[in-house]
Amino acid sequence: MTPNSPGRICPAPYRYSPALLAGPATLATRTLYVIGGLYGNPQALEAVQRLRELEDNEPVLVFNGDFNWFDVDEPGFVAVNQAVLEHVALRGNVETELASDDESAGCGCAYPEWVGDGEVERSNEIMQRLKAVGRRFPVLRERLAALPMALTAEVGDTRIGIVHGDAESLAGWRFSQESLASARHHARIAAWFEDARVRAFACSHTCLPVLKEFGLAAGKGIVINNGAAGMPNFRGRRHGVISRISVTPCREVRPLYQARLDGLWVSALPVRYDHVAWRKTFLANWPAGSPAHESYHRRIVSGPDYQPRQALRLISTEESRIDSAQPACGAG
Description:
30% of the residues lie in helices and 20% in strands. By secondary structure, it is an alpha/beta fold.
């Protein structure tokens, strides 16, 4: 495959400037949930709603793309989209391709070179099947097409840029855990904070979570990537992850890891959905031998080869350590 092959190409309409985020905030709240990569998992959607109900300050929910993927049964597709569209939502590459008749981008994932050709081909096949379902629901497709690619939120007095991929592309990979591990990208990312006039970016798209602090001229900045709300993110753990950004610490559910930013708590929360029910739903749509089963079933059962300690990348470990005395209860 070449960089211009379906599934690897990043289409021109996916691109934007970080200045897109520099205008007035679209929403203001004291607590924000950023939910990327739901991937059509209805049990994870229910678990996120349960987390929300535990909060004293009712969070604003922002689904920042790829809330569709495995939901190729008509009732599931309709239910997930209708539920998500009751909240604030961005379109990811999945929703963008669902709403488009152009086939040239494949799944629209813009996969980098470290992702194998087999994974890319199977993702394109999943997208084809999902698009066939989406075409039966033109009104939902129109609503997906109308969703923005990015928005800015104010949590307390702090501006947060919410994207699907990165600060320049709907399907960008600069906020992936792999890219954030490379210092050669850091100067460019630091400039994005200034251009967007934000102190944090919340994203997903790249499937594995990471929280990375940056030292900026104006103070500290944070990138928090929630990985996937609808799939396991760590080896041996069967839960999704969402990002919580709030003026108050989360005392209802113990975060997996977190950092402080000015007066905010920036946390990764576990989404403890019903694994047995979700696996049954998944297998009904994607049995053994199907492209999604080959690419994702092992992860759904066992998680990827990744650990929470790898996801937390702080300037100062002591400054942002989780309080071990913090209670863990409820859905956590």
